[in-house]
Amino acid sequence: MQTGRQSWCVTKRKKPDLFVAGCGAVLPEKKRWVPWASAALMASVFLVGQKRADAQIAEKVPPTVETMPGAGVIGQPRRIPAEQNRSRKRHQGDWGAFNWGNGEFAGFGPVGTYGAAPWAEDWSSKKDPKNRTDFLDPLKAIRLNESGSIWLSLSGESRIRNWYESNPQLGTAGKQHSGRFTVRNLFGADLHLGQHWRVFGQLNNGEAAGWNYYGYNSTWRRRLGVQQLFVGYERKLLGAKTGVMVGRQQFLDAPSWLVYMRETPNVPLSWNGARGYAMWNRIRLDLYNFVGTQVTKDTIMGGGFDDGTRLYGGNIGIALKPFSIAGEQVHSFLDLFWMGFHYGGKSAAVALYKGSQAGTQTRQNGGFRWYGSAPSFEYELGGVYQGGRFHPGSSTVASRPVSAWAVRSVLGWRHSSSSLHPFLGVQAEAYSGGDNRRKEGTVGTFSAPFSPRNGTFDLTRTIARANIISAGPLVSIAPRPFMNIRIRVPYLWRQSMNDGLYNSSSPFSFLSGAKLRQAGRAVGWQPQGQVQFQLQQHINWQIDGGAILMTHRMRRAGGQNGTYMLSTITLRF
């Protein structure tokens, strides 16, 4: 991430003169869906934010487009050196060598000014008024005693999303020209009780409406629920930062293409259980055992334990010693993980030649991810093997072994010191398929049931990571510190001709029986583009658009081409 020269450090600059539009929708008059909290937060941010109270300070601060980085380190618009990660404008913890880049390899998700998990942010410096650079900083570190050893940090997010799809789910949703409008609110409080103890709680609210919409359930519409609530204890032990977290929490210590946080619906994914970790300067360990969270729509503060959904395992992370390639120093990180899944429902059903077979699945995942960067190139490589068993819902049918795999890689050239800060690369990934003609024997279809990140594959969740090969160019530029443009143009194939095409929860019904082979291996193109504006520290506007252009044989089998566009405004503090 070091580029050899520092040419883009920002000191004081004026607020970009940008106008936000295109995020509105006409909703049914009888639908009372707009939460007052979202409106209040938006009004306060826009009114007070005009004064630009967070004027950049003359130190090495990151560009504003990195305010809240996404998972997947190569996807970041620019390189962020270690000294910027620990500046007063970024809030990663003290994670030693794992502070490199977006901090994702520390195991708590990516963190910039804000993090995917609010409790991963370190706002302790804001207890001193001299370190406050933003008008909302007083809410991030509220002293509750004279010494400041007991203090409270508040957090919030309101996300407003409007999207259009011409033929949702390859035409199988039964809707055309669908428009959906969703709002979600997350409000959190992080209570620090001295040097070692903390209690973090977060509430969630979600609303959804639109026209010709489809697919809404309790993960989209929720009156009010406990998103997270855990007790944490942390201290130095054997030279390592060690900690235990017990309760309801987000879990992000995994490749984001395998497990992430359910980012498309309004209610993010959370888990119930215990997690323990130990972090030295260049090595870390992580152990965890969780059950899922039930998401209920109408019960205030509802949502208990889903004992049929489990996630457990361990991780070893290593910040490898820098090495050289072609005279350039490479910083790299290696994660080795073992992870267990147990799940049921639609995502656990196994596709047959015609129809599917219900049941539950237990899968053991063994894998790795390896990321590295040098001044002029960057790479990420990951792979996983899945073993386990499928247990049919009928006791008269024998269980079946599981043997599946996945690999993913990104390789490209980055020139951070130029005016556009371009990244030009190739992204390729493959997820195994099975043989739907068999009602017994090995299940070979890869499964990622716990909401992997969509933004690096298919934002609409139309095509899932199962029986698919995807490869194509990836281009990203950041022409201004507050702006990033990203384009992907992958081509898709089925890995197995005897297995179908999958959406986020089940196989597409049109691709079954004799059509499995008649449709051919090629699926088609899936061009995608994204423009992101970090308008102000608290305001992000993102526009996504793309299409699915299927082959003639796929269309003849029953699939349909489609286009989509999303406009998302996110307000954070």
UniProtKB/TrEMBL annotation:
Top-level division of the source organism's lineage: Bacteria
Pfam families recorded: Alginate_exp
Domain annotation Alginate export: ranges: 151-564
Listed InterPro entries: Alginate_export_dom
Region (Disordered) location: 67-93
Identification of the protein by name: Alginate export family protein
